[in-house]
Each structure stands twice: as C-alpha cells, then as structure tokens.
Amino acid sequence: MAIVVDLDLQLARRGMSVGEFAEAVGITPANVAVLKNGRAKAVRFTTLDAICRTLGCQPGDVLRWVPDEEEEQARPEEGS
C-alpha cells in the first residue's frame, strides 16, 4: 500500500508518548502501534478526527501517499 502514516514525527514534535496519545484519542496503544507500523488497513473518520484534534493538525500531516516504487524507501527497516 502506498499510504504512509507519519505519527512518529507528529508525536515527537509534540513530545507526546504513545500512551498519552492513545488515551487522548481513545484507542489502545496496540492500535497506535498498528497505525505507526503501517499495518492498518483502514482508519475510521471518527478516529482520524480524534487524531487531528489531539495533535492539532490536518489529516495530511499524519497520512501521505507515495508511489508504490518509493514505498519501500519511505518505510523504516524492520527491527530498527
């Protein structure tokens, strides 16, 4: 899939932990990990709304599209 989730960047900019973020958004830390690791197959608009409210950002600050050939370069390697 060519959608990249940039939650790490947004959380780091705000000095927010995964636990704090998960609680504020109303999702589990495990589901935050699924989003951060690019394993999510879908995101509900209500969840995206809560993410944007919590981070004070736009959906495009969290989600971005990259062409398929660039996807592998955009994702961090497993285990890093």
TrEMBL record:
InterPro entries associated with the record: Cro/C1-type_HTH, Lambda_DNA-bd_dom_sf
Entry superkingdom: Bacteria
Entry-linked PROSITE patterns: HTH_CROC1
Domain named HTH cro/C1-type: residues: 13-62
The protein, known as: Helix-turn-helix transcriptional regulator
Organism: Streptomyces albiaxialis
